[in-house]
Design a protein that fits this description.
Elements lengths: L6 H4 L5 E4 L3 E3 L6 E4 L3 E6 L10 H15 L6 E6 L4 E3 L4 H4 L4 H6 L4 H8 L4 E5 L2 E3 L1 H8 L2 E5 L3 E3 L13 H9 L1 H10 L3 E2 H7 L4 E3 L4 H13 L3 H16 L2 H15 L3 H11 L22
Bound molecules: octanoyl-coenzyme A.
Octanoyl-coenzyme A binds next to α3 and β8.
Length: 295
Protein backbone atom coordinates (compact mmCIF):
# COMPACT_ATOMS: atom_id res chain seq x y z
CA UNK A 1 0.00 0.00 0.00
CA UNK A 2 1.03 3.63 -0.44
CA UNK A 3 2.62 5.61 2.40
CA UNK A 4 -0.29 7.70 3.68
CA UNK A 5 1.88 10.53 5.00
CA UNK A 6 3.78 11.62 1.89
CA UNK A 7 1.97 14.80 0.69
CA UNK A 8 3.76 14.98 -2.68
CA UNK A 9 2.77 11.44 -3.61
CA UNK A 10 -0.79 11.70 -2.42
CA UNK A 11 -2.03 15.26 -2.82
CA UNK A 12 0.71 17.04 -4.78
CA UNK A 13 0.97 20.83 -4.64
CA UNK A 14 -1.26 23.80 -5.47
CA UNK A 15 -0.01 23.78 -9.07
CA UNK A 16 0.13 20.02 -9.61
CA UNK A 17 -2.46 17.93 -7.84
CA UNK A 18 -2.23 14.20 -7.23
CA UNK A 19 -4.94 11.65 -6.57
CA UNK A 20 -3.46 8.30 -5.63
CA UNK A 21 -5.09 5.91 -6.04
CA UNK A 22 -7.14 7.70 -8.68
CA UNK A 23 -10.90 7.39 -8.73
CA UNK A 24 -12.69 6.90 -12.03
CA UNK A 25 -15.31 9.60 -12.67
CA UNK A 26 -18.70 7.89 -12.87
CA UNK A 27 -20.36 8.36 -16.27
CA UNK A 28 -22.84 11.23 -16.43
CA UNK A 29 -22.35 12.40 -12.85
CA UNK A 30 -19.88 14.22 -10.64
CA UNK A 31 -19.66 11.24 -8.32
CA UNK A 32 -16.43 9.35 -8.21
CA UNK A 33 -16.20 5.64 -8.46
CA UNK A 34 -14.06 3.11 -6.69
CA UNK A 35 -10.32 3.74 -6.32
CA UNK A 36 -8.27 2.30 -9.17
CA UNK A 37 -5.55 0.14 -7.69
CA UNK A 38 -2.09 1.11 -8.91
CA UNK A 39 -3.21 4.25 -10.80
CA UNK A 40 -2.10 7.80 -9.95
CA UNK A 41 -3.79 10.87 -11.45
CA UNK A 42 -1.68 14.02 -11.85
CA UNK A 43 -3.56 17.25 -12.68
CA UNK A 44 -1.91 20.44 -13.98
CA UNK A 45 -3.75 23.07 -12.01
CA UNK A 46 -3.73 26.58 -13.50
CA UNK A 47 -7.08 26.46 -15.30
CA UNK A 48 -7.48 30.25 -15.50
CA UNK A 49 -4.20 30.44 -17.48
CA UNK A 50 -5.18 27.35 -19.53
CA UNK A 51 -2.70 25.38 -17.38
CA UNK A 52 0.25 27.32 -18.82
CA UNK A 53 3.45 25.63 -17.71
CA UNK A 54 5.25 28.09 -15.46
CA UNK A 55 8.69 27.19 -14.16
CA UNK A 56 7.16 26.64 -10.70
CA UNK A 57 4.55 24.27 -12.13
CA UNK A 58 7.19 22.37 -14.11
CA UNK A 59 9.36 22.02 -11.01
CA UNK A 60 6.40 20.67 -9.04
CA UNK A 61 5.48 18.34 -11.89
CA UNK A 62 8.98 16.89 -11.92
CA UNK A 63 8.95 16.34 -8.15
CA UNK A 64 5.51 14.73 -8.27
CA UNK A 65 6.17 12.27 -11.09
CA UNK A 66 9.53 11.28 -9.62
CA UNK A 67 7.91 10.61 -6.24
CA UNK A 68 5.18 8.52 -7.88
CA UNK A 69 7.74 6.64 -9.98
CA UNK A 70 9.45 5.24 -6.89
CA UNK A 71 6.19 4.40 -5.10
CA UNK A 72 5.78 0.63 -5.40
CA UNK A 73 2.00 1.04 -5.25
CA UNK A 74 1.94 3.12 -8.47
CA UNK A 75 1.94 1.13 -11.69
CA UNK A 76 0.51 3.69 -14.15
CA UNK A 77 0.34 7.50 -14.14
CA UNK A 78 -2.29 9.62 -15.92
CA UNK A 79 -1.48 13.31 -16.53
CA UNK A 80 -4.31 15.72 -17.34
CA UNK A 81 -5.19 19.41 -17.18
CA UNK A 82 -7.67 21.02 -14.79
CA UNK A 83 -10.90 22.22 -16.39
CA UNK A 84 -12.27 21.50 -19.83
CA UNK A 85 -10.50 24.12 -21.90
CA UNK A 86 -6.93 22.93 -21.92
CA UNK A 87 -4.45 20.20 -21.16
CA UNK A 88 -1.84 22.99 -21.25
CA UNK A 89 -1.60 25.97 -23.63
CA UNK A 90 2.20 25.93 -23.56
CA UNK A 91 5.01 27.28 -21.46
CA UNK A 92 4.08 30.46 -19.59
CA UNK A 93 4.71 33.14 -22.21
CA UNK A 94 4.88 35.87 -19.58
CA UNK A 95 7.83 34.11 -17.97
CA UNK A 96 9.43 33.17 -21.27
CA UNK A 97 9.32 36.81 -22.41
CA UNK A 98 11.80 37.68 -19.64
CA UNK A 99 14.38 35.05 -20.63
CA UNK A 100 17.75 35.39 -22.32
CA UNK A 101 19.94 32.66 -23.85
CA UNK A 102 22.00 32.63 -20.63
CA UNK A 103 19.03 32.53 -18.27
CA UNK A 104 17.50 29.66 -20.24
CA UNK A 105 20.79 27.77 -20.22
CA UNK A 106 20.90 28.12 -16.44
CA UNK A 107 17.19 27.38 -15.98
CA UNK A 108 15.87 24.29 -14.26
CA UNK A 109 12.57 24.90 -16.10
CA UNK A 110 13.48 22.71 -19.05
CA UNK A 111 13.89 19.76 -16.74
CA UNK A 112 10.12 19.39 -16.17
CA UNK A 113 9.60 17.66 -19.52
CA UNK A 114 12.81 15.63 -19.15
CA UNK A 115 11.77 14.45 -15.68
CA UNK A 116 8.42 13.21 -17.03
CA UNK A 117 10.22 11.51 -19.93
CA UNK A 118 12.58 9.76 -17.52
CA UNK A 119 10.02 7.97 -15.34
CA UNK A 120 9.97 4.20 -15.74
CA UNK A 121 6.26 3.86 -14.87
CA UNK A 122 3.92 3.91 -17.91
CA UNK A 123 2.41 7.39 -18.43
CA UNK A 124 -0.79 8.42 -20.22
CA UNK A 125 -1.79 11.97 -21.21
CA UNK A 126 -5.54 12.67 -21.04
CA UNK A 127 -6.03 15.70 -23.31
CA UNK A 128 -9.08 17.91 -23.51
CA UNK A 129 -8.93 21.28 -25.24
CA UNK A 130 -5.63 22.95 -26.04
CA UNK A 131 -2.34 21.08 -25.99
CA UNK A 132 -0.12 23.72 -27.55
CA UNK A 133 3.60 24.41 -27.53
CA UNK A 134 5.06 23.00 -24.32
CA UNK A 135 1.64 21.45 -23.60
CA UNK A 136 1.77 19.44 -26.81
CA UNK A 137 5.38 18.57 -25.97
CA UNK A 138 4.31 17.35 -22.53
CA UNK A 139 1.52 15.21 -24.01
CA UNK A 140 4.00 13.73 -26.51
CA UNK A 141 6.43 13.04 -23.66
CA UNK A 142 3.87 10.61 -22.20
CA UNK A 143 3.85 7.02 -23.43
CA UNK A 144 0.22 7.07 -24.60
CA UNK A 145 -2.13 9.89 -25.45
CA UNK A 146 -5.92 9.78 -25.07
CA UNK A 147 -7.49 12.73 -26.87
CA UNK A 148 -10.98 14.02 -26.24
CA UNK A 149 -12.90 14.94 -29.39
CA UNK A 150 -12.40 18.60 -28.36
CA UNK A 151 -8.58 18.32 -28.19
CA UNK A 152 -6.48 20.75 -30.23
CA UNK A 153 -2.78 20.12 -30.79
CA UNK A 154 -0.10 22.37 -32.20
CA UNK A 155 3.37 23.83 -31.97
CA UNK A 156 2.58 27.54 -32.48
CA UNK A 157 5.96 28.79 -31.25
CA UNK A 158 6.88 30.20 -34.67
CA UNK A 159 4.03 32.68 -34.25
CA UNK A 160 5.77 34.20 -31.25
CA UNK A 161 9.20 34.20 -32.87
CA UNK A 162 10.70 31.04 -31.38
CA UNK A 163 10.73 27.28 -31.98
CA UNK A 164 9.74 24.41 -29.68
CA UNK A 165 12.35 23.93 -26.97
CA UNK A 166 11.08 20.97 -24.97
CA UNK A 167 11.45 18.18 -27.52
CA UNK A 168 8.66 19.19 -29.92
CA UNK A 169 10.72 19.18 -33.12
CA UNK A 170 12.08 15.73 -32.28
CA UNK A 171 9.02 13.96 -30.87
CA UNK A 172 6.56 15.37 -33.42
CA UNK A 173 8.86 14.31 -36.26
CA UNK A 174 9.19 10.80 -34.83
CA UNK A 175 5.42 10.59 -34.28
CA UNK A 176 4.11 11.82 -37.63
CA UNK A 177 7.12 11.99 -40.00
CA UNK A 178 9.30 14.86 -41.18
CA UNK A 179 7.13 16.25 -43.99
CA UNK A 180 4.03 16.55 -41.82
CA UNK A 181 5.97 17.80 -38.80
CA UNK A 182 7.66 20.44 -40.95
CA UNK A 183 4.30 21.83 -42.06
CA UNK A 184 2.97 22.04 -38.52
CA UNK A 185 6.20 23.48 -37.09
CA UNK A 186 6.76 26.01 -39.87
CA UNK A 187 3.18 27.29 -39.96
CA UNK A 188 2.14 26.86 -36.32
CA UNK A 189 -1.13 25.35 -37.60
CA UNK A 190 -3.33 23.77 -34.94
CA UNK A 191 -4.92 20.40 -35.59
CA UNK A 192 -8.03 18.86 -34.07
CA UNK A 193 -8.23 15.44 -32.48
CA UNK A 194 -9.46 13.60 -35.58
CA UNK A 195 -6.56 14.90 -37.69
CA UNK A 196 -4.12 14.12 -34.89
CA UNK A 197 -5.45 10.55 -34.90
CA UNK A 198 -5.08 10.26 -38.68
CA UNK A 199 -1.47 11.45 -38.40
CA UNK A 200 -0.66 8.90 -35.68
CA UNK A 201 -0.05 11.44 -32.92
CA UNK A 202 -2.58 10.00 -30.47
CA UNK A 203 -3.45 6.55 -29.13
CA UNK A 204 -7.18 7.10 -29.59
CA UNK A 205 -9.90 9.74 -29.70
CA UNK A 206 -12.88 9.47 -27.36
CA UNK A 207 -15.95 11.65 -26.72
CA UNK A 208 -14.76 14.74 -24.85
CA UNK A 209 -16.64 13.98 -21.60
CA UNK A 210 -15.12 10.49 -21.48
CA UNK A 211 -11.49 11.57 -21.87
CA UNK A 212 -10.32 11.19 -18.28
CA UNK A 213 -12.35 8.04 -17.60
CA UNK A 214 -10.97 6.47 -20.76
CA UNK A 215 -7.37 7.32 -19.81
CA UNK A 216 -7.92 5.99 -16.29
CA UNK A 217 -9.45 2.78 -17.65
CA UNK A 218 -6.38 2.26 -19.84
CA UNK A 219 -4.13 2.97 -16.85
CA UNK A 220 -6.07 0.50 -14.68
CA UNK A 221 -5.78 -2.17 -17.37
CA UNK A 222 -2.00 -1.68 -17.45
CA UNK A 223 -1.76 -1.49 -13.64
CA UNK A 224 -3.45 -4.90 -13.34
CA UNK A 225 -0.66 -6.54 -15.36
CA UNK A 226 2.82 -7.40 -14.06
CA UNK A 227 4.57 -4.10 -13.39
CA UNK A 228 8.08 -5.30 -14.16
CA UNK A 229 7.02 -6.49 -17.60
CA UNK A 230 5.17 -3.21 -18.25
CA UNK A 231 8.28 -1.22 -17.38
CA UNK A 232 10.43 -3.45 -19.58
CA UNK A 233 8.02 -3.09 -22.51
CA UNK A 234 8.08 0.69 -22.06
CA UNK A 235 11.88 0.74 -21.95
CA UNK A 236 12.07 -1.38 -25.10
CA UNK A 237 9.67 0.82 -27.07
CA UNK A 238 11.47 3.95 -25.91
CA UNK A 239 14.75 2.44 -27.12
CA UNK A 240 13.23 2.14 -30.60
CA UNK A 241 13.25 5.94 -30.86
CA UNK A 242 16.86 6.21 -29.76
CA UNK A 243 18.73 3.23 -31.22
CA UNK A 244 19.35 1.84 -34.70
CA UNK A 245 17.29 -1.32 -35.37
CA UNK A 246 20.10 -3.78 -34.61
CA UNK A 247 20.91 -2.03 -31.33
CA UNK A 248 17.23 -1.88 -30.42
CA UNK A 249 16.86 -5.61 -30.96
CA UNK A 250 19.92 -6.29 -28.77
CA UNK A 251 18.36 -4.07 -26.10
CA UNK A 252 15.01 -5.86 -26.38
CA UNK A 253 16.75 -9.26 -26.06
CA UNK A 254 18.50 -8.09 -22.88
CA UNK A 255 15.19 -6.87 -21.38
CA UNK A 256 13.51 -10.13 -22.48
CA UNK A 257 16.17 -12.25 -20.76
CA UNK A 258 15.86 -10.17 -17.59
CA UNK A 259 12.21 -11.19 -17.25
CA UNK A 260 13.23 -14.83 -16.78
CA UNK A 261 13.69 -15.81 -13.16
CA UNK A 262 11.38 -13.05 -11.96
CA UNK A 263 8.41 -14.12 -9.79
CA UNK A 264 5.98 -12.69 -12.36
CA UNK A 265 7.48 -14.73 -15.21
CA UNK A 266 7.37 -17.89 -13.13
CA UNK A 267 3.82 -17.20 -11.94
CA UNK A 268 2.51 -16.12 -15.37
CA UNK A 269 3.73 -19.26 -17.09
CA UNK A 270 2.77 -21.59 -14.22
CA UNK A 271 -0.74 -20.09 -14.15
CA UNK A 272 -1.06 -20.62 -17.92
CA UNK A 273 -0.05 -24.27 -17.60
CA UNK A 274 -2.36 -24.78 -14.60
CA UNK A 275 -5.22 -23.02 -16.43
CA UNK A 276 -5.85 -20.47 -13.65
CA UNK A 277 -5.57 -16.66 -13.38
CA UNK A 278 -2.09 -15.41 -12.37
CA UNK A 279 -1.42 -13.69 -9.04
CA UNK A 280 1.15 -10.96 -9.75
CA UNK A 281 3.82 -9.87 -7.29
CA UNK A 282 4.34 -6.25 -6.24
CA UNK A 283 6.54 -4.10 -8.44
CA UNK A 284 10.29 -4.69 -8.16
CA UNK A 285 12.53 -1.82 -7.09
CA UNK A 286 13.32 0.55 -10.00
CA UNK A 287 16.35 -0.66 -11.95
CA UNK A 288 19.47 1.48 -11.87
CA UNK A 289 21.31 2.31 -15.08
CA UNK A 290 23.44 -0.49 -16.53
CA UNK A 291 26.03 -0.47 -19.30
CA UNK A 292 23.58 -2.18 -21.64
CA UNK A 293 20.87 0.46 -21.25
CA UNK A 294 20.70 3.34 -23.72
CA UNK A 295 21.15 6.92 -22.61
N1 LIG B 1 1.24 31.41 -21.21
C1 LIG B 1 0.69 32.26 -20.32
N2 LIG B 1 -0.63 32.51 -20.27
C2 LIG B 1 -1.44 31.90 -21.15
C3 LIG B 1 -0.94 31.01 -22.12
C4 LIG B 1 0.48 30.76 -22.12
N3 LIG B 1 1.06 29.89 -22.98
N4 LIG B 1 -1.96 30.56 -22.88
C5 LIG B 1 -3.07 31.15 -22.40
N5 LIG B 1 -2.76 31.95 -21.36
C6 LIG B 1 -3.68 32.77 -20.55
C7 LIG B 1 -4.11 34.03 -21.28
O1 LIG B 1 -3.12 35.04 -21.14
C8 LIG B 1 -5.41 34.35 -20.60
O2 LIG B 1 -5.12 34.96 -19.36
P1 LIG B 1 -5.97 36.27 -18.89
O3 LIG B 1 -7.38 35.78 -18.77
O4 LIG B 1 -5.34 36.63 -17.57
O5 LIG B 1 -5.80 37.27 -19.96
C9 LIG B 1 -5.99 33.00 -20.30
O6 LIG B 1 -4.89 32.07 -20.36
C10 LIG B 1 -7.03 32.54 -21.31
O7 LIG B 1 -6.45 32.64 -22.60
P2 LIG B 1 -7.13 33.46 -23.82
O8 LIG B 1 -7.92 34.60 -23.30
O9 LIG B 1 -6.04 33.78 -24.79
O10 LIG B 1 -8.12 32.36 -24.39
P3 LIG B 1 -8.59 32.18 -25.90
O11 LIG B 1 -9.66 31.16 -25.88
O12 LIG B 1 -8.90 33.49 -26.52
O13 LIG B 1 -7.31 31.58 -26.67
C11 LIG B 1 -5.40 30.11 -26.97
C12 LIG B 1 -6.80 30.32 -26.33
C13 LIG B 1 -5.58 30.01 -28.50
C14 LIG B 1 -4.84 28.83 -26.43
C15 LIG B 1 -4.50 31.32 -26.63
O14 LIG B 1 -4.54 31.54 -25.24
C16 LIG B 1 -3.07 31.15 -27.03
O15 LIG B 1 -2.76 31.30 -28.20
N6 LIG B 1 -2.18 30.85 -26.07
C17 LIG B 1 -0.75 30.72 -26.31
C18 LIG B 1 -0.43 29.44 -27.07
C19 LIG B 1 1.08 29.39 -27.35
O16 LIG B 1 1.61 30.19 -28.11
N7 LIG B 1 1.75 28.42 -26.76
C20 LIG B 1 3.19 28.21 -26.92
C21 LIG B 1 3.94 28.94 -25.85
S1 LIG B 1 5.72 28.85 -26.08
C22 LIG B 1 6.12 27.29 -25.52
O17 LIG B 1 5.29 26.56 -25.08
C23 LIG B 1 7.58 26.88 -25.60
C24 LIG B 1 7.83 25.61 -24.80
C25 LIG B 1 9.31 25.29 -24.67
C26 LIG B 1 9.99 26.29 -23.77
C27 LIG B 1 10.79 25.67 -22.66
C28 LIG B 1 11.20 26.76 -21.67
C29 LIG B 1 11.70 26.29 -20.37
Amino acid sequence: MTEALDPIRHSGTDLVQVECPARRPAAGSHDTGAPLDGVALVTLNRPRALNALSFALLTDLGRVVEALDVDPAVRAIVITGAGRRAFAAGADIGELAEQTPDSLAASEGFRGWDRVAAVETPTIAAVRGYALGGGCELAMTCDMLIAGSDAVFGQPEIKIGIIPGAGGTQRLTRAIGAARAMELLLTGRQIRADEAARLGLVTKVVPAEETLASALDLAAEIAALPAGAARAAKAAVRAAAELPLAGGIVHERMLFRERFGTPDQAEGMRAFVEKRPPRWEGRPAPAGPTEDRPG
